[in-house]
Specification:
D-Maltodextrin-Binding Protein, domain 2, alpha/beta, 51% helix, 13 helices
Amino acid sequence: MILMRTLGFGSALAAALLCGTVATSQSAAQTITLHGASQFNDDHAFTKAMVKFEQLVKQYYGKPINFVLHKNSELGLEKQYFEYMAQGKAVDYAIVSPAHMSTFSKAAPFIDAPFLFRDLAHWNKVLDADLLKPIADEINQKAEVMLIGYAGGGVRNIFVNKPVHNLAEIKGLKVRVQGAPIWSRTFAATGMAPTVIAYNEVYNAIQNGVIAAGENEAAGVEQMKFFEVAPHLAMTEHAITIRPLCFSGKTFKGLPADLQAAIVKAGKEAGAYGRQIESSEDSQKLDAMEKAGKLKRVPFADRDAMKKLVDPVMAAYAKEIEADKIFAAITNLK
């Protein structure tokens, strides 16, 4: 009898443990995991913004949730991230250049086109006024990718394998540009010879003489070590980056309402955090690289003349992609 009771107790304990294991497994299965992707390491502003996004979502959601951030191009490049998010697989959130959204929205690359913003103050006012909402709505509708925040803030200049100071010296310059048509058109209008090359192939292309230059903000020049093959930075200040923090619409629809609210709120704040980091780090990074003898900033005398050549191209392109109202609103914002 004692033995039977013992066995009975043992069976009950085993059953309880089994139930506990099942309950634990069910609980674990119900814990949502979101996957992010970055081309860069922990030190890059984009990665920092996405880490901030994770922290804020956890804070606002207040329930168990897992985040996995794949760094250093582990899941490919931004173009792939956006495609994955549109398909609702592999990547749930990432910071992506608007140039990679052009398949779904002709107006998307217009978000940070060359010479669109007068300066950082104008850039911030445009974002605060939410003037880009029509473009974000179109991307969400056609690609099912949400733009939940806006990072960026780096001022883009041209890194070259020789010093260039003016329009005459950049005539015919073979320069890598982003894939969106507006970049090729505007750079061609200034007399350069733009060519589209994958971001991770730019270093070798300059090294092998396929091109002589590229254009990027300080963080990109530092991260990709472009200064090793193109140590002269022509200070054209032709663009200020906007890098949307994106979230897969397909993933979003399958999440509980309170998590959706946390993601939307966190996205906006993480984007602002990313802007603050990159815009403040930009000159610091250039100072550090120049002090270390890695690059030399070259004053560019013809920025205003460059802009005059680009303005009609920008206006025509805005009309072509039916973004002329947005272009006018941005241009007229004081």
